[in-house]
Write a structure and sequence with these properties.
Oligomer: single chain
Strand order of the largest sheet: 3-2-1-4-8
Strand content: 15-25%
Structural class: alpha/beta
Shape: globular
Number of helices: 9
């Protein structure tokens, strides 16, 4: 069985074809076109170029009802607010379609084919344009009453001192977007001119501004990890997102985590940027059963 899989992110659309055994037959990536219509057209174009798929599985950010394939709030892709994506896809293609939250998909990929296959309790934190999270406890994905459990980006990393509470959360301080924007502000440029790789390259070169901002980024991230470890008592906390491709990333997180004085098992997601697509495929297969 072949599935067409898609991971809609804040900056890119990842596309692939996956078997029911988890083999990635082909994959590609395109820039996020910005509008709902343009993204949906990219999906339809991919399906036309890759015939023979028996279903469609999609990973998206935000608040998702996985039973109906309905996105109430699109997170970093607000163009999909209040949209029945699976219904739309089935009407356009006559193929069964499922939709699941992207952090949930990353976690499911780890459970299906990755390092967590034998784990009954583990967490996933995804770090990218935004910050997502998911919890697997007592052999089950925790969803919550409105399918919004695991919004780790809402966790506070500092005591609110004024203004919007969101300014003091992981979602506003532990993402590549936040890091790029802070570096751009301190170097007199726009955020569009700054990449995450540039910031970390400057950190490697011990540039003072990058040194301060990246250190704060890691300290805030580790504060969240510490809180989650004590709340869930997991076997492991997995970290996903493009940042985890940095060779020294895990070592740097462990260095800053040591300050908290608690042994916390952490690791990077097994499948990197393919996690969302693989997890979406697994959710499709589980839903069909």
């Amino acid at each position: 069985m072949k599935l067409a899989v898609f991971d809609i992110g804040g900056t890119s659309l990842k596309m692939g074809v996956v078997t029911d055994k988890g083999d990635m037959l082909t994959s590609d990536k395109a820039d996020n076109a910005g509008t709902r219509e343009a993204i949906l057209q990219d999906i339809l174009d991919w399906l036309q170029k890759n015939p023979g798929c028996e279903g469609i599985a999609v990973s998206v950010p935000g608040y998702v009802d996985p039973r109906r394939g309905y996105i109430s709030m699109g997170g970093t892709v607000r163009a999909f607010d209040d949209f029945h994506l699976s219904k739309w896809l089935t009407e356009k293609t006559s193929l069964p379609a499922t939709v699941e939250n992207d952090a949930h998909c990353a976690l499911l990929a780890e459970r299906w084919l990755g390092k967590a296959q034998s784990m009954s309790d583990f967490l996933m934190i995804t770090i990218g344009t935004g910050l997502g999270g998911a919890a697997f406890c007592n052999d089950a994905l925790i969803r919550g009453k409105a399918d919004r459990a695991g919004e780790f980006g809402c966790l506070l990393v500092a005591r609110p001192a004024g203004g919007s509470v969101s300014r003091y959360t992981m979602g506003d301080n532990c993402t590549m977007t936040a890091l790029r924007e802070s570096y751009a502000l301190h170097t007199g440029r726009s955020a569009d001119e700054v990449s995450g790789k540039e910031v970390f390259s400057a950190w490697d070169d011990k540039e003072p501004i990058a040194a301060r901002l990246v250190t704060t980024f890691y300290q805030d991230l580790c504060a969240g990890i510490y809180n989650l470890a004590n709340t869930f008592d997991p076997e492991c906390i997995f970290l996903g997102g493009g940042i985890t491709e940095r060779e020294a990333f895990l070592e740097e997180v462990q260095f800053h985590l040591a300050w908290f004085g608690k042994a916390i098992p952490i690791d990077t997601a097994t499948f990197g940027n393919d996690s969302g697509m693989l997890g979406a495929a697994y959710h499709f297969l589980q839903s069909r059963r």
